Amino acid sequence: MFKSLRGRIVTIVLVMIVAGWQLYSKSLKLGLDLQGGMHLALEIDDPDGTLSPEAKSQMIDQVEIVIRQRIDELGVNEPLIQKAGSERLIVELAGISDQQRARDIVQQAAFLEFKLVLPRSEFAPALPRIDRAIVATLGPDSLAALGRSFEATEGPSADEINAALFGGGATDTTAIDSVPAVDEAEPELNLRPFTFLLREGEFEGIYYVAVEDVELAKAFLALESVQRAFPRDIVLTWGSEPVGLGVGVYKSLYVLQEDAFLRGDRLEDAIAQRDPQFNQAQVAFELSRAGGREFSRFTGQHVGDYLAIVLDGDVMSAPVIQDRIGARGQINLGNSPMEEARDLALVLRAGALPAPLRIEDERTVDPSLGADSVARGKVAGAVGLALVLVVMIGYYRMAGVIAVGALGVYVTLVLGGLAGLQATLTLPGLAGLILSIGMAVDANVLIFERIREELEAGRATRTAVDEGFGNALSAIVDANVTTLITALILFQFGTGPVRGFAVTLSIGIVASFFSALYVTRTFFLIYLSGKKASDPISI
Questions:
Q1: Is pTM, for the whole model, over 0.85?
Q2: Which residue, 84, 214, 259, 348, is most buried by CB atoms nearer than 10 A?
Q3: Does residue 93 sit in helix, strand or coil?
């Protein structure tokens, strides 16, 4: 089939159909420099400088794996994710439309923990110590400069809170207690700065802080003296979203057990969905077998208590444990959009980052720059092809026409190959494409010159053609194989644009070899099929 003229024609037609279908169905993917996108340089966030270079290098290796999984699920075509040195990770996302979303997905630590919510009564005895620590550290004058009296007052009543949250009065399951009275005999407690900011929550284990007071409360909690005044094994953790209480907006502050009884490394799957009862976004998760056993054991021991689901240091939700829970559960996101739930499920599936990341460098490539590059590339390609056509046909006449026909097959094969392999075409890739076109023409020139030599030596036409292809074979093979080896080395050890150049060049070399030795010869056989052996040919 491959030697007969009919078999050759059928083979070329089939190859062209496959290449054309790949190009039509999958289309070419353009790189960052041609269609725009974003470039990020990420480093481990180590503000205190406590991590060694070796530790950062190991963390970057782990970060690369996690980020690659996240970006793959995000659906970005041919992202560039690679280490630059030992402590930096380069991420290039071509054609990304929502850059803020991509930035959040890349940076989110996704550190998931499950912690028990403790009663306020376990934390309340520490409030006087915390207040004293703040007053002693900052001094009355500094507190007075904030424009607050800092004399603790009664917060909203239980009925007010439940009415705001649930539209009704206090229920049997709601427990509201007051902030404990402070011994007024101690003069330093005339100012109660932290207690002043707290409002009781709708169930045991939660306080509320007005949104306008959140930064102040965080500043108080960050004081080292305040940290020393905390009860052992208890932490205060902020809720992820503000809540409305009457006319005010508050942030939740949960009293949690410091140690998590389960972490996200036991997570096996996470899927975004809507709560069928309230139509709110949520993420359904599934734990591993060992994680499911631990989850079931713990929740069975704490029926009636509240369970905090903590993500990156914020409480996402704190449902009551109504019964023993197995390996499946949900993270409720309230009124958040479904896209946020899908992104959260994505990062949970990919796993947590080993450390927070800092964006050291960020650049945005304007799509208009890529469009301009594509337009200029088209013009350059068209001019180059036109010159090739003119020179080949003008110098080699009918043989030049045959070479032009083979070159058309070659271009279709290269573009179809790029589309079929889902390779990304970049500006260096365009350079590789143009270079491979030159090599395809060069192969035809070698063949035609060998045919001319045979004709000048008095060989018959068909014999001269056969000898010309045979004598040119070794030179074409040597040139193509050595260039292909170079392209493979560039692909193996190169980065980004260099690899794009290597891929395009490699596909072009293979297509050039097929075009010059198979397609061109087939076209010659078609041309000679209507001639006698003694008839001259135009070359």
A1: no
A2: 348
A3: strand
